[in-house]
């Protein structure tokens, strides 16, 4: 078509003029790789769930209050790739099966300003509309925060087969018309999230950790095979394998915790909407505090690293945490994605 021909000419013109090459050079110039002089942080690998024990251990081994941890950079333009000393063979064995792709060396990755603010404003508008329609929240998790989060999408917390999360179904709304209106609003918000924001995160991460692409393809195929009917009815719940679930909440998770249901081998992706200040991401094991302003994304190993956020300084902050649960990933790593599960 004439439209596609015009687009092809524009791409050729940009390539000829060096636009893409200049952009890649600028990104490289604003990317900093840091190897921190600390041991590989496997302190909580193999633990059973105990929020109190995590808080006690952090207080004993890393007593600096989170809000007093050193800020890794005050330059919001910088993208960051952060790692500790390499794990020993014994530590790698503790991590469990990692599949043929291996583990990324980076413990945390900040992607600076990859989401345009107008897109975040639109996402926030759609979130506010969903809440105004009567979205039901679960009770807050006292081990993390004073405010509740909804978990939307699918996860495999209750067996090898992934399932739609309870928050995605909103069965607590007994009025059928109201429930259907809430679900329509939810689907529109999630569709916008996937089409306009998830793709940006996916492209940025593919540049840094391309070895995860094959694992992502298997995750997507695993979920689509087992949830074919559900995804046909509500395609908005399929995030394409980059993650399975998105947790959304107001404010910050100000209490030190481990995300026990996340997996050791994969990143949680965190970004925030709103006009806020503060709420730095704190990792006591690495002795760092990472500022995360609007438009930037933090990819971080939230099952491996105890973490919290400092308090919101001013303004409003809605945080989106995108993750894959450990059961779904373990099914892939152990080859159960090839089983014919019903």
Number of strands: 14
Assign a percent range to the helix content: 25-40%
By secondary-structure content and strand pairing, the structural class works out as alpha+beta
Give the mean pLDDT. 87
The main sheet orders its strands as: 1-2-3-11-7-14-6-4-5
Total of helices = 10
Radius of gyration: 20 Å
Global geometry: globular
Q: Characterize the quaternary organization of these chains.
A: single chain
Query: Spans with pLDDT under 50 lasting ≥5 residues?
Result: 338-342
How far the N terminus sits from the C terminus, by CA atoms, comes to 43 Å
Note the main sheet: 9 strands, mixed
**CATH fold node name:** Double-stranded beta-helix
Top CATH class: Alpha Beta
Residues in β-strands, percent: 15-25%
Question: Main traits of this protein?
Answer:
342 residues, alpha+beta, Double-stranded beta-helix, nine-stranded mixed sheet, 10 helices, 14 strands, 37% helix, 17% strand, disordered C terminus
Strand and helix map with partners:
Elements: H1 2-16, H2 19-29, E1 31-35, H3 51-61, E2 79-83, H4 89-94, E3 108-111, H5 117-132, E4 149-155, E5 163-164, H6 166-169, H7 176-208, H8 212-226, H9 228-233, E6 245-250, E7 268-273, E8 277-278, E9 281-283, E10 288-290, E11 297-300, E12 308-309, E13 312-314, E14 318-323, H10 326-333
Parallel strand pairs: 1-2
Antiparallel strand pairs: 2-3, 3-11, 4-5, 4-6, 6-14, 7-11, 7-14, 8-13, 9-10, 9-12
Helix pairs in contact: 5-7
């Amino acid at each position: 078509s004439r439209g596609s021909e015009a687009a092809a000419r524009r791409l050729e013109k940009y390539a000829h003029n060096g636009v893409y090459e200049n952009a890649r050079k600028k990104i490289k110039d604003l990317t900093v790789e840091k190897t921190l002089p600390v041991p590989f942080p496997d302190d909580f690998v193999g633990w059973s769930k105990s929020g109190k024990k995590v808080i006690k251990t952090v207080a004993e081994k890393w007593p600096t209050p989170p809000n007093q941890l050193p800020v890794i950079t005050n330059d919001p333009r910088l993208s960051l790739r952060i790692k500790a000393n390499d794990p020993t063979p014994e530590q790698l064995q503790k991590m469990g099966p990692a599949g043929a792709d291996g583990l990324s060396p980076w413990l945390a990755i900040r992607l600076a300003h990859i989401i345009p603010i107008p897109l975040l404003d639109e996402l926030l508008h759609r979130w506010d509309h969903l809440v105004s329609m009567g979205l039901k929240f679960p009770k807050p998790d006292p081990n993390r925060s004073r405010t509740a989060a909804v978990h939307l999408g699918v996860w495999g917390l209750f067996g090898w087969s992934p399932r739609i999360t309870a928050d995605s179904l909103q069965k607590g709304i007994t009025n059928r018309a109201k429930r259907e209106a809430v679900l329509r609003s939810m689907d529109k918000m999630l569709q916008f999230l996937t089409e306009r924001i998830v793709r940006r995160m996916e492209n940025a991460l593919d540049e840094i950790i391309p070895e995860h692409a094959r694992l992502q393809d298997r995750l997507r195929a695993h979920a689509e095979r087992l949830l074919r009917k559900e995804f046909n009815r509500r395609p908005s719940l399929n995030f394409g394998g980059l993650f399975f679930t998105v947790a959304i909440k107001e404010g910050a998770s100000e209490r030190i915790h481990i995300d026990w249901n996340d997996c050791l081998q994969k990143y949680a992706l965190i970004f925030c909407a709103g006009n806020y200040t503060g709420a730095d991401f704190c990792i006591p094991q690495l002795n760092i505090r990472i500022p995360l302003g609007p438009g930037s994304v933090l990819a971080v190993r939230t099952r491996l690293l105890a973490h919290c956020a400092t308090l919101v300084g001013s303004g409003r902050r809605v945080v989106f945490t995108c993750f894959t649960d450990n059961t779904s990933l373990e099914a892939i790593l152990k080859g159960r994605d090839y089983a014919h599960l019903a």
